[in-house]
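Notes from the 1:1 (GR / supervisor)

We went over the backlog. Supervisor wanted to see one worked example end to end before approving the batch request, so GR pasted a single chain during the call. The sequence is below; no edits were made to it. Supervisor asked that the structure be written out right there so they could see what the output format looks like.
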Amino acid sequence: METGVVLLRWTQYAASFVLPGGALFAIYALPASGPASAGTLEWTRRLLAWVAALLVLASIAGLLLQTAVVAGSLGAAFDPSILVSVLTEMAMGAASLVRALAAALAFLLLLVLRPGRGAWIAAAVLGAVATASMAWMGHGAATEGAAGGLHLLADIVHLIAAAVWVGALAFFVMLAGDARRGEDRRAAFHVALAGFSGLGSGLVAALVASGLVNGWFLVGPSGWPGLVETPYGRLLALKLVLFAAMVALAAANRFRLTPALRVALADPAKAGATVDALRRSLLLEFGAGLAVLGLVAWLGRLAPITAQ
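Structure output shown during the call:
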């Protein structure tokens, strides 16, 4: 059951990141109107709606499976009295319920509302609630005392910043496919890439700062030397390596491939090759991001080295 719990946690992280991050991307990075606007692109609402539906299912399944782990048997997950106890007495239960409800409401609004700014704002807000609720399933909610609020806040900032990045990557991968369909799509793809550059730097800074705060609480200055000797430490080290790879790929996209696309827009043959190179790089960056989320889901089930 433990493997199932980790896989469902990973699914919830991925879905709860793409939902608000993608919806925000539709607001700040895509044109308000025209053939490349989020409302015109046929996949935008469909992608967000499917992600919201996936988050509902994964949240409910995760709640049931984690209840089974807590109770010691799979059948206990369907015992109403045990479920009520988990929902009312455990942060994990309440957080799962909030996440499922937020995702369900986002799904319904995406189906009912006309594609446009209102739908994206609703999806972004509800997705942010779902993302923040993941903090109550991690180590950030376990810190006691006056410092607990700071640790939880840092965890939420870390999650939201990661969601904006990962959600943007999901949309960039889709836009790269669209960019093969015409000059206007390639131009919109370039505008989105250039517009995200400054925001991306801020997201990296927020992730590093909040990550350092989390590291202080979970590992502490004295814990770093022996960190790689523990399973938690080795997974954390791998997470940092993958994060560094994502930063390196993002830097290559910003300083090499995006300027190359701007130059190549006048030549359809060169532009196509540059778009393909960007798509490969973005797929690698998005894949590394999903791998990081898998490690986060696993790390949340391991005991960290607590600062003394």
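Supervisor's comment: The mean pLDDT is 88.
Batch request approved.
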